[in-house]
Design goal:
This protein is of the alpha/beta class. The chain is built from six helices and nine strands. A nine-stranded mixed beta sheet has the order 3-1-2-4-5-6-7-8-9. The longest helix has 14 residues.
C-alpha cells in the first residue's frame, strides 16, 4: 500500500451507507459514509477487519461514487476505511466538492493526506504511528483509549497538532464501562480534551 494509486487506479469500496456520524466532533450529524478497503495499520480491536484486504472489495470509479452521493441527498460525506489516506483522494474530493458536498476524512494519519477536505479527523494508532505532517493537518484528534497507558500516548500526539485542533478521548467500546470513569476524571483535570462515545453502537445504527 505504499504506492498510493498504481495498484488501485479505481478506489476499492467496501461499503457506502447513509447514517448519522456516531463519534467525534460531528456526532449526530447526517452523513454519507464511503468506506474504502485496504489497511495495514492492524489495530487488534478494529471492528471492521474485513476492510483490511483491498483486493476483497469492488473497485469503483470516482464518477460512480459521486453519483451515489448525489442520489443519497446527503450533503456531508465521511471518507473512512480501512485506511483511506493510503490512496490519493484528490480526484474523488474534487468531484464531491463539485457536487456541492462537504467532506470529512477519518484517518490514522499513517500516510500523507492527499485530497481537498473540509474536516480532517486523525485517530492515531500505536500499531503504526501518525505522521507529524498529518497531525498538523488535523481539525480533530481522536484517540481511542484501550489501556490506561494510552492517556500518556494521547498527550504525545496532542503535542504535535495545531493550536485549533479539537482533542477527543474515546473509550474502546468493549471497555467502555471499565475505562469511562477514568477518562471522565482525566478530562476534568485536563480540560483540553473532550469525551467521544460511539453513539451509533449505543443506538444500533451503522
Amino acid at each position: 500500500m505504499s504506492d498510493k494509486t498504481s495498484e488501485y487506479p479505481l478506489l476499492p469500496v467496501m461499503e457506502t451507507f447513509h447514517t448519522l456520524q456516531g463519534e467525534g466532533a460531528h456526532t449526530g450529524r447526517s452523513a454519507w459514509f464511503i468506506r474504502l478497503g485496504g489497511c495495514d495499520v492492524g489495530c487488534v480491536w478494529c471492528d471492521v477487519k474485513e476492510s483490511w484486504d483491498a483486493a476483497q472489495h469492488s473497485p469503483r470509479s470516482v464518477e460512480e461514487i459521486t453519483q451515489d452521493v448525489i442520489a443519497s441527498g446527503a450533503g456531508f460525506v465521511v471518507i473512512t476505511g480501512g485506511e483511506p489516506a493510503a490512496y490519493d483522494l484528490t480526484p474523488l474530493t474534487r468531484s464531491l466538492h463539485s457536487a456541492g458536498c462537504e467532506i470529512a476524512l477519518e484517518t490514522s494519519g499513517a500516510y500523507p493526506i492527499l485530497g481537498e477536505f473540509d474536516w480532517v479527523c486523525v485517530s492515531p494508532k500505536k500499531f503504526k504511528n501518525a505522521l507529524p505532517e498529518a497531525l498538523q493537518m488535523a481539525d480533530e484528534l481522536k484517540v481511542v483509549i484501550y489501556h490506561p497507558s494510552d492517556l500518556d500516548w494521547a498527550e504525545q500526539n496532542a503535542s504535535m497538532v495545531n493550536a485549533a485542533c479539537m482533542a477527543f478521548l474515546q473509550p474502546e467500546y468493549s471497555r467502555l464501562e471499565q475505562h469511562a470513569p477514568m477518562i471522565v476524571d482525566y478530562i476534568k483535570s485536563n480540560p483540553r480534551w473532550r469525551l467521544s462515545l460511539q453513539t451509533h453502537k449505543v443506538i444500533h445504527i451503522p
